[in-house]
Amino acid sequence: MSWRSHGKNNEDLVHQLKKNGLIQSNEVEKAMLAVDRGDYVPKGASAYADTPLPIGHNATISAPHMHATCLELLKDSLFPGARVLDVGSGSGYLVAVMAEMVGKEGQVTGIEHIPELTEQSKLVLESKKAPHWPPIEVLCGDGRLGYQPNAPYDAIHVGAASPEVPDSLIEQLNPGGKIVIPVGLDYQGLMLVEKDRNGKVHERNTMGVMYVPLTDKAKQLSRW
């Protein structure tokens, strides 16, 4: 399949994603080149394969082609100075990529309901922090509720499938902002949710996907 963009290293991975049309903008290409996926997966994992990978506690990091797709959908809302939220931030990879895109004047918040992943991602992000990154806050909590103290957000990414778009995330979205979220149970669609300047919400299904469910900690840990 054309979206199988396996790489030998991070640079080659990004090159393959661009060659296969998953990366279309300079902004996304530059940010993904700057953040080495290998730093955000378990040691010994196939970091540059275009596939989801387990990161412990029944959680996964999404396949690179899905990260590229979501970033391209959110690109116009990941402008310098933007405030962004990553729900189900896992290993912190997408937090780092979005930090590259919004720059020093922005703010990136990650929320993850597994405490061990929260603490591990904070350590990695601190060790990889670049001078041009914005303030980053990674919290342990229920991402379905968003995180009101840092709202409103210009961009929200959700890394697991919800039965519907949570009202709390729509409420915390800035007018002009965007949410990318997989929605559905048996069938999942990657939804692009946009709030226009008048506050009206528009939703569009961009493609069919398959994500782990957006759930609470107990249900996630008991899935297998």
Key terms:
alpha/beta, 7-stranded mixed sheet, 29% helix
Q: What can you see in these coordinates?
A:
- The protein has 224 residues and is an alpha/beta fold.
- Helix content is 29%, strand content 25%.
- The protein is built from 7 helices and 9 strands; from the N terminus they run ααββαβαβαββαβββα.
- It has helices at 10-19, 26-34, 64-74, 93-102, 115-128, 167-171, 217-221; strands at residues 53-56, 59-61, 83-87, 107-112, 136-140, 153-158, 173-183, 188-195, 201-209.
- α2 packs across α4 (93-102).
- The chain starts with 9 loop residues before the first helix and ends with a helix.
- Residue-averaged pLDDT, rounded? 93
Strands in their spatial order, largest beta sheet: 5-4-3-6-7-8-9
Morphology call: globular
> Which structural category fits the helices and strands?
alpha/beta
Give the terminus-to-terminus CA distance.
29 Å
Portion in strands: 25-35%
Number of helical stretches of at least 4 residues: 7
Order of helices and strands: HHEEHEHEHEEHEEEH
The total count of strands amounts to 9
Query: pLDDT below 50 for ≥5 consecutive residues: which ranges?
Result: none
Helix content: 25-40%
Please describe the biggest sheet, giving its number of strands, its sense, and whether it closes into a barrel: 7 strands, mixed
List the helices and strands and how they pair.
Blueprint: H1 10-19, H2 26-34, E1 53-56, E2 59-61, H3 64-74, E3 83-87, H4 93-102, E4 107-112, H5 115-128, E5 136-140, E6 153-158, H6 167-171, E7 173-183, E8 188-195, E9 201-209, H7 217-221
Parallel strand pairs: 3-4, 3-6, 4-5, 6-7
Antiparallel strand pairs: 1-2, 7-8, 8-9
Helix pairs in contact: 2-4
